[in-house]
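Friendly challenge for the regulars: who can give me the structure tokens for this chain first? No prize, just bragging rights.
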Amino acid sequence: MKNNTELSFRQSVDVMFNRASKLLDLKPGLEEKIRVCNATYKVRFGVRLGGKIKTFTGYRSVHSEHIEPVKGGIRYAKSVNQDEVEALAALMTYKCAVVEIPFGGS
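First reply, four minutes later:
Bragging rights claimed.
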């Protein structure tokens, strides 16, 4: 369980991004444009299991569409949440950009 001083995964990614962006000469407004996710989708869907219908929640985050297609993985876990999916999408954007792979992050 998190205490009030512990950062979320997404917040820790943003802290690292802020450190890196201070070393770059970014145009005004570009830092915020890069940091935020373009879109996050939350879906709920039903699955029949053992004669009963169970409802599951899923998330899909598109961090950056500056280059398409967008690249990202899929994670199936009971504990996955929007914060984690957005953090992973942001990290994919940054990883692709660092090694000049022509994909946005998803």
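The chain has one domain: 9-105. The chain is about 35% helix and 25% strand. Your move, everyone else.
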